[in-house]
Amino acid sequence: MSQSLVVTAGESSGIGPDVILKVAADWGHAEEYLAWSQVDCSELRLGVIADPDLLQRRAEQLGLEIALTQVLPNESLPIMQAGHLAVIPVALAEPERAGQLNAANAAYVLKTLEIAVDGCLSGQWQGMVTAPVHKGVINEAGVPFTGHTEFLQARTQTEQVVMMLATEGLRVALVTTHLPLKEVADAITPERIARVSRVLYRALERDFGLSQPRILVCGLNPHAGEDGHLGREELDVIIPTLKALAQEGIPLIGPLPADTLFAQHHLKNADAVLAMYHDQGLPVLKHAGFGRAANITLGMPIVRTSVDHGTALDLAGTGNAHEGSLWTALGYAALMADARTR
Ligand SMILES: NC(=O)c1ccc[n+]([C@@H]2O[C@H](COP(=O)([O-])OP(=O)(O)OC[C@H]3O[C@@H](n4cnc5c(N)ncnc54)[C@H](O)[C@@H]3O)[C@@H](O)[C@H]2O)c1
Ligand SMILES: N[C@H](C(=O)O)[C@H](O)COP(=O)(O)O
Q1: How many Cβ atoms from other residues are within 10 Å of residue 21's Cβ?
Q2: Which of 163, 176, 205, 213 has the greatest count of CB atoms below 10 A from its CB?
Q3: Where does substrate bind (predicted)?
């Protein structure tokens, strides 16, 4: 079946528009870049939710010739072709300047996300791919915002979503996401670990076609607590929860000391790692595959993937932003959309 995917262009002063335009310019190589995902690129329908004037200005800045066609949300998206881009238009409040944040445009960024979620929920599109937003500037505009993951959870009314980043040979999911470090230990509850583990296990089966996925679980404390001498969360919370999960048919492996869990002899037998917090898991993943990884929100009724990088304001409009992660995110979105419609 031919899939329709939408890409949100993210923070207007960041590199989201740049990487989208670069992918459009290079679409002639899509089959090569997406070969790993087995996506049929000749059938893929793609649209970008953004201000068309912003894309036009950034294309000129980058010296790219991209023909932009406006499409309304209820119209079908064209099959993607090199040098062309279908745009579902949303107007900026003020013209952007590459590299310079402007809180006046925060509502625009959120509007692009709302349109994407609603179109995916209605079945108009089979998945959404997000370019990076700037969490800080959205908060400065007066809207509490910790990330796409939490925003999408609320908008889709999903009880538990899971952030998982994936690159070749490694998938890392998180028990907690965008939390200050000092709040992490209290958030590692049996209920949260159990909910996240169930979502992760089922998503690996449903969206990635893995039967009985093997998931390694990190401890929270150094050396997984050293039998309680370096913290008790493993003994009091994590181990009993993993035992209960095994009883319900979700066997996970751990908790293992996070420093050595990521050694190859462990990873070669694993389908995914479950880390307790953001900077326990993601630095390893980004070290292994920054620029070739995607961020995937599991557990929602819609497919959502994202680039693995942020707004990189220093690179916006320079032509130096690498678009590799957007290719990866597109590949995962198409692959998951396929798995769900098969
Ligand atoms: N998916 C998302 O929406 C997302 C993801 C990560 C960070 N962010 C947000 O982005 C903002 C900036 O975050 P940050 O500075 O921690 O991370 P960043 O990814 O924007 O930048 C980190 C470093 O990587 C470089 N870099 C990033 N993307 C690149 C690319 N495509 N090609 C080449 N180099 C690249 C940057 O120049 C910088 O040196 C923050 O507000 C953060 O919350 C958003
Ligand atoms: N934690 C993500 C990362 O480091 O790549 C990033 O902040 C984006 O998260 P959202 O998809 O929730 O915006």
Answers
A1: 25
A2: 163
A3: 148-149, 286, 295, 304
Which of 340, 250, 249, 260 has its CA nearest to residue 303? 340
Does residue 153 line the site of ligand 2, with CB under 6 A?
no
Virtual torsion, Cα 277, 278, 282, 284, nearest 10 deg: -40
Question: How many residues does the structure list for the chain?
Answer: 342
pLDDT of res. 1: 64
Q: Which ligand is nearest to the CA of 323?
A: 1
Q: Is the ipTM of this complex over 0.95?
A: yes
Residue nearest to atom 2 of ligand 1 (CA): 132
**Cα–Cα distance for residue pair 73/125, rounded to 1 Å:** 9
Ligand minimally distant from the alpha carbon of residue 149: 2
Q: What is the pLDDT of residue 41?
A: 87
Q: Which residues of the chain have pLDDT under 50?
A: none
- pTM score, two decimals? 0.96
Segment 284-307, tens digit of pLDDT: 999 999 999 999 999 999 999 999
State in Å: Cα 179 to ligand 2 middle: 12
Domains and CATH numbers, the chain: 4-158+300-341 (3.40.718.10), 162-286 (3.40.718.10)
pLDDT in tens, 182-231: 999 999 999 999 999 999 999 999 999 999 999 999 999 999 999 999 99
| For the CA of 324, the nearest ligand | 1
For residue 75, the CA-to-ligand 2 centroid distance in Å is: 30
Q: In the structure encoding, which two tokens stand for residue 190, read together?
A: 């049996």
Atom of ligand 1 nearest to the CA of 147: 3
The residue whose CA is least distant from atom 5 of ligand 1 is 310
Amino acid residing at 198: R
